[in-house]
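Reopening this one. Same input as before:
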Amino acid sequence: MIIASYVFLIIGALFYLLGGLGVLRMPDTFNRIQAGTKATTLGSFSMIFGVIIASIETHPNWIFKLVILIVLIALSNPVGSSTIAKAIYKSKDVPSNLLKDDLKDRGEIK
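Same output, byte for byte:
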């Protein structure tokens, strides 16, 4: 069980590393938000799942709390990233290579 826990912890750490590299390497803010959000969500899920596996025998009362943490991360990360993207869009920092602007065409954001 402990080896499976370590595997998930390493996978989570790799997702965090790749997310950090994605934030550094992406050309514009919208791509950076996506790279950071996707990688940190998957990294967090992997790390928490690794902790769940490790704590089954020693701390079984942690499992419910960790599952609640996964649910909260799954709800808050997409909302936070879309809020940041909308704020960037409203600040007129839209990249010049944007192919299609759905929000401008529908007139939702002024």
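So the earlier flakiness isn't reproducible anymore. For the record, The radius of gyration is 18 Å.
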